[in-house]
């Protein structure tokens, strides 16, 4: 089954063999033997192309579940003897500020070197869905204070009020404090519409009765800040997400949006690696 999954993901028998640490002839022989046993063709292949057949797609779904179950069984057995191993898939929003994630990962790896760590980027909504479908173990979420994560276990890491970020040459750069109404005529850069990273700001402007112009959308804070430096736009971000920079100014907002960072994990049978990771994070 591992060979089939590798070929399906690599779309190449040679790369799949390298990934599985076997010679290509052995991998090809095993897959052909499996196809004969099943009485179906799993892959359509030529010298230059490999595609998964409809039968192969059906087989892959169950094969992945079986492999995950086997890996979990081995991890649970090892955990019973005190050894944590297996894989740990972690989701991280673009603006993690509550914890020093590189330091946390380094400490976890030193304590549990047998655990393979997979880092995934994305948004809070997709992370929650991935945890609920057992495709992810742990995630750091960023959500407005009016939204409570559903279907997952959570721990609040931080509550923070966003600040306005403008360029040093912006006409508001000298201000010590602002209200959202002061930003009514400004152009903004923000996360994509509807994403959890943007919702706190949209809700705050709506509650204040202020219309704003989001002229640019971006998926990383780094790109947002680059646009702000050029004085094209302003943005709202966590103060911890803004580096010390002579080209930028952060200004507190009296009625700005509040964002909560959560650590989230499965509420149903979390893996030993997930439990160890969650237990190792303190705030």
Secondary-structure-derived class: alpha/beta
Number of helices: 9
The 3D shape can be described as elongated
Q: Which strand order do you get reading across the main beta sheet?
A: 4-3-5-12-6
What Rg, in angstroms, do the CA atoms define? 24 Å
Major pleated sheet: 5 strands, mixed
Count all strands and give the number.
12
**Helix proportion:** 25-40%
| Proportion of residues in β-strands | 15-25%
Quaternary state of the chains: single chain
Distance between the termini: 42 Å
Unreliable runs, pLDDT <50, ≥5 residues?
A: none
Give the SSE order as H and E letters. Answer: HHHEEHEHEHEEEEHEHEEEH
pLDDT average, as an integer? 88
Write a structural description.
The protein is α/β, with parallel strands linked by helices and 283 residues long. It is built from nine helices and twelve strands. It has a five-stranded mixed beta sheet with strand order 4-3-5-12-6. Strand 1 and strand 2 form a beta hairpin. Helix 1 (2-10) packs across helix 2 (13-20). The longest helix is centred in the N-terminal third of the chain and has 26 residues, at 54-79. The two termini are 42 Å apart. The model has no long low-confidence stretch (mean pLDDT 88).
């Amino acid at each position: 089954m591992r060979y089939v999954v590798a070929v399906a993901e690599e779309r190449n028998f040679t790369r799949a063999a390298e990934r599985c640490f076997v010679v290509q002839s052995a991998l090809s022989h095993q897959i052909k033997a499996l196809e004969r046993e099943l009485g179906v063709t799993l892959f359509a292949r030529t010298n230059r192309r490999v595609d998964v057949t409809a039968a192969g797609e059906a087989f892959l779904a169950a094969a992945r579940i079986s492999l995950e179950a086997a890996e979990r069984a081995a991890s649970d057995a090892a955990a019973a003897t005190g050894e944590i191993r297996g894989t740990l898939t972690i989701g991280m929003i673009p603006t993690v500020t509550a914890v020093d994630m590189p330091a946390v990962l380094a400490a976890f790896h030193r304590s549990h070197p047998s655990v393979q760590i997979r880092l995934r980027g994305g948004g809070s909504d997709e992370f929650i869905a991935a945890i609920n479908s057992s495709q992810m173990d742990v995630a750091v979420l960023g959500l407005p204070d009016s939204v409570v994560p559903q279907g997952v276990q959570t721990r609040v890491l931080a509550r923070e009020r966003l600040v306005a970020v403008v360029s040093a040459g912006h006409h508001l750069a000298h201000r010590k404090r602002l209200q959202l109404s002061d930003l009514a005529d400004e152009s903004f850069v923000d996360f994509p519409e509807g994403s959890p990273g943007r919702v706190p700001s949209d809700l705050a402007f709506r509650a204040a009765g202020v219309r704003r112009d989001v002229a640019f959308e971006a998926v990383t804070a780094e790109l947002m800040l680059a646009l702000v430096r050029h004085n094209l736009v302003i943005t709202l971000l966590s103060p911890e997400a803004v580096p010390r920079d002579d080209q930028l100014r952060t200004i507190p907002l009296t009625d700005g949006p509040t964002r909560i960072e959560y650590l989230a994990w499965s509420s149903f049978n979390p893996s030993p690696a997930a439990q160890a990771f969650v237990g190792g994070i303190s705030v």
